[in-house]
Design a protein that fits this description.
The complex is a heterodimer of chains A (about 400) and B (about 450). Chain A is mostly helical and about 400 residues long. Chain A folds into two domains: about 190 residues, no CATH class; about 120 residues, no CATH class. Helices cover about 65% and strands about 0% of the residues of chain A. With about 450 residues, chain B is of the alpha/beta class. Chain B has two domains: about 260 residues, no CATH class; about 70 residues, OB fold (Dihydrolipoamide Acetyltransferase, E2P) (Beta Barrel), CATH 2.40.50. Chain B is built from eleven helices and 19 strands. Classes of the chains: A mainly alpha (about 400), B alpha/beta (about 450). Chains A and B meet through helix 2, helix 3 and helix 17 of A and helix 10 and helix 11 of B.
């Protein structure tokens, strides 16, 4: 490590003001602080500081996403071989999924971090690590057949217009990864929804199956099936799924959203480390379950008739509750506000699912909508505090 | 006695280098320094120059806005320098001690038998008034104000802080006289906050005070927290706060008729070989007490506790309101590889992404001055709330200050807070935001705008 440190110290001057590579200062800075904890010391105020920093907080979220990512890769391969009616070994299956998903991760990070580096250089600031999480979330919430160029456009749109124009990490109103998905959803609806995009059908780099698809393959997501009036949820081959299958997650869907087990591992990591708020997470589920039960008792269409646990297990509900709703920047900043925020996300998500079959995936819209209302929720609690203080003064 | 006030939010940082409860003999240094900046809120008008002879209690400078408010010399001897900085701002006044601590005259009498005006004059002339602080704004009190209460904290919960039970031993009479003087001076109720876990015999024996028992982690010992839970400050109200040792210092003058700015201090921190208590005088050079007592050469000297203190050089001086000198390692040469992902078992964090929360609260940590990360915008939420035991939203208040929104600052409770109350927020902040500086600037801004 000493040699690396010495090398960094040697090349550092050429990245500073007037140096040869000054245009890449932010990039160098980003890598240097990534490799070594900066040696800045407290100059005023508190002389000692907790050793948590935003790099650690963000990397905990990335680590929590890894189970969902790995499972997503395997499931992509699994669905591919399933619809072609072929058997494949575990590693062949995983490798196919890996090759299908990796380009998406690379594109999301390259586009997003590229913009971040340029903006940091332009503003003369340090690189912020917020996109580490967004860049990992984006590939996990798109269908596997989403073309890379569309992903690049959407990522660029989200990073610039949902984040940088507001001032960068910490200032955004909307969750960046969800804006990416919303952009894809509304700008390229054909590539983002319907039955054709959820399963990788073509062979990749010599891997995968070249044979024709089996008959009766649907490839629709479970919620897609229900919203078009299906009474029984089937997997890609048309056999009926049990709740256990839904927990396992071997069905078509966005790359990372299908397995409740993988998401659960992520949730445990986030709650154990305290990076995500249990208040938000818990109340999203509470809101979703209660609302689903309410619609069960009405039961006017197939989605309303979906049992509450299937509402929770299917679609992006778990993924959104664990990884998206808990984003601290776009959540309320008051602790009590988080209960209300979470509950309303769960409520709105199920309402959208049930009342507007055109949007079977209500979670994305619900979280974006509540992002917008988070400051209002905060305002109510802060105003209550202010009123309390005034009352005390007038007593 | 009222019921115990339990403080739940907060954080005790268990640092290495606590002092044993013994006084070590410390030789008084030759050079003393009085820094006008220590007396926040005073606009100094210096009246001494190089070569002037001074006694203990001779006026060094007074407040331009309030000429009665004087800051005096803690030592007798000769002024050797008046150091000035930019725009001729006085940085400090250096005094060479003659070793005799000869005092200006002070009338020995019982404050309870004096009139309010007499007490006020006595305190102003002796320079004691500059040791009374006021809230709002956390500045030196204005002698013309009438406070609604006086608060004295009988314990200090900051990391490595001195144990008041120990340093106040034998000062019952001095403390009582000091309390009498303050009660007479203000005509207001005197409140003393004590820790329910400490004996606090001295404070419990004191007459004419209202005792409040507190329990809980730092910042339970902060006087601001105590005020908030006993008698919170509303807009337009003023509360005075005095350090318990300074109360005894005032009382001692009434008891003996001799001015003395001596106090007990603690020398602590993980870089100190033999952490100990000793008797010092404010403004004294620390060079004697730290000599041959420091481990390592890359260390930081702090006058005060590591959360709120001031960085001073190795031959620096004890601040006017400090009764603690802390020496901890500097963190400027760590070169820690991939620290953001390593387990870092020896590091302390309130975040559960480290393991210190599993290792028990009795484990002592050596924390250096490294900030451990770059400054960011507010990202994580709820961190401040966990260490801020007042009914105030600290993050919203800090944001209102950053926006210089006076209405919002008032509404969110800026009158109740001092920078020290935000020290723990600054410690735990993932985004490494300098909250104490922001709050100080906010208080100064508000005071200027509303003056």
């Amino acid at each position: 490590m000493k040699a690396l440190r010495n090398f960094l110290d040697k090349v550092k001057p050429s990245f500073e003001e007037g140096g040869k590579f000054h245009a890449f200062r932010s990039v160098f800075d980003g890598f240097e602080t990534f490799l070594f904890v900066p040696n800045t010391t407290a100059k005023r105020g508190s002389h000692i500081h907790d050793c948590i920093d935003s790099k650690r907080a963000m990397s905990m979220v990335v680590i929590a996403l890894i189970p969902a990512l790995l499972f997503g890769m395997y499931n992509v391969g699994f669905q591919h071989y399933l619809v072609h009616g072929e058997e494949a070994s575990f590693w062949a299956t995983f490798l196919f999924g890996f090759l299908a998903v990796l380009p998406k991760i690379v594109v999301a990070y390259a586009v997003g971090l590229g913009i971040e580096f340029v903006v940091a250089q332009w503003r003369g600031e340090e690189i912020q690590e917020g996109f580490l999480v967004s860049g990992m979330l984006i590939p996990l919430i798109v269908p596997v057949e989403c073309p890379l160029w569309i992903l690049a456009v959407a990522t660029a749109f989200a990073v610039i217009f949902a984040k940088e124009v507001f001032g960068g990490t910490g200032y955004n109103i909307f969750n960046v990864a969800l804006i990416t998905r919303a952009f894809l959803f509304f700008a390229y609806p054909v590539k983002m929804s319907g039955d054709a995009v959820w399963v990788a059908k073509d062979a990749l780099c010599g891997l995968g199956s070249e044979s024709a698809l089996l008959d009766g393959v649907t490839g629709a997501t479970p919620l897609g099936q229900v919203s078009t009036g299906a009474t029984e949820i089937t997997n890609a081959l048309g056999s009926v799924m049990s709740p256990m299958d839904m927990v396992m997650g071997f069905y078509p869907g966005s790359i990372g959203e299908t397995s409740v087990i993988a998401i659960g591992i992520g949730a445990i990591i986030l709650l154990w480390t305290g990076i995500a708020s249990w208040k938000t997470m818990l109340s999203v589920f509470a809101g979703g379950i209660l609302t689903a039960m309410m619609f069960n008792s009405i039961g006017a269409n197939e989605v309303m008739n979906l049992p509450w646990y299937e509402h929770i297990l299917l679609g992006g509900f778990c993924f959104g509750a664990v990884f998206m709703a808990t984003d601290p920047v776009t959540s309320p900043r008051t602790e009590c506000g988080k209960y209300i925020y979470g509950f309303l996300i769960g409520f709105v998500a199920i309402v959208i699912r049930c009342l507007n079959p055109g949007y079977p995936e209500g979670m994305m819209l619900a979280i974006l909508l509540m992002n917008l209302f988070a400051p209002l929720i905060d305002h109510c609690f802060v105003q209550a505090n202010i009123k309390r203080r005034l009352k005390r003064a007038n007593r | 006695m009222s019921e115990v006030i339990r403080i739940k939010k907060g954080l005790d940082i268990n640092l290495k280098g606590k002092a044993n409860e013994v006084f070590s003999k410390a030789q008084m240094p030759d050079v003393f320094s009085v820094r006008p900046d220590d007396f926040h809120g005073i606009k100094p008008k210096t009246i001494v120059k190089d070569g002037d002879s001074v006694k203990v209690g001779s006026v060094l400078f007074y407040d331009k806005a309030n000429p009665d408010l004087k800051v005096v010399s803690p030592v007798s001897g000769q002024v050797i320098a008046v150091n000035r900085g930019e725009r001729r701002k006085v940085l400090d006044i250096r005094i060479k001690s003659d070793g005799n601590f000869e005092s200006e005259p002070f009338e020995k009498c019982k404050p309870s038998s004096m009139s309010q005006e007499q007490v006020k004059k006595a305190l102003l002339d002796a320079g004691f008034f500059a040791f009374i602080k006021q809230r709002p704004y956390d500045v030196i009190a204005n002698p013309n104000d009438a406070p609604k209460a006086i608060f004295i904290s009988g314990f200090d919960t900051a990391p490595l802080a001195p144990n008041y039970d120990f340093i106040m031993v034998g000062r019952e009479e001095e403390f009582q006289l000091g309390v009498d003087a303050l009660a007479k001076l203000s005509g207001a109720k005197v409140h003393v906050g004590i820790n329910v876990d400490n004996a606090s015999k001295l404070f419990k024996l004191t007459k004419g005070v209202e005792i409040h028992e507190f329990q809980g982690p730092h910042p339970a010992g902060n006087v601001g927290v105590q005020i908030h839970h006993v008698d919170p400050i509303n807009k337009g109200e003023i509360v005075w706060t005095v350090n318990a040792q300074d109360v005894a210092m005032i009382g001692k003058a009434f008891m003996t008729g001799v001015l003395s700015f001596s106090r007990s201090i603690v020398l602590a921190g993980s870089s100190v070989k033999n952490p100990c208590y000793c008797k010092m005088v404010y403004g004294a050079s620390i060079s004697n007490i730290v000599a041959n007592n420091i481990e390592g050469d890359n260390v930081r000297y702090i006058s005060g506790n590591p959360l709120t203190g001031t960085q001073i050089p190795a031959d620096g001086f004890l601040g006017a309101f400090d009764s603690q000198v802390t020496v901890i390692p500097e963190g400027d040469k760590n070169d820690e590889f991939l620290g953001w992902i390593m387990p870092r078992l020896k590091k302390f964090s309130v975040s559960r992404s480290y393991f210190s929360w599993l290792l028990g609260s009795s484990r002592e940590y050596e924390i250096d001055t490294n900030v451990n990360g770059g400054e960011r915008a507010f990202i994580m939420s709820g961190e401040y709330d966990k260490v801020f035991p007042m009914d105030i939203y600290p993050e919203f208040l800090v944001k209102a200050i950053l926006a210089r929104d006076i209405d919002k600052m008032e509404q969110l409770g800026i009158y109740e807070v001092a920078p020290e109350d935000f020290a723990l927020c600054e410690f735990v902040c993932t985004s490494k935001i300098e909250t104490q500086r922001i709050v100080r600037e906010g208080l100064d801004y508000l005071r200027k705008e509303l003056a």
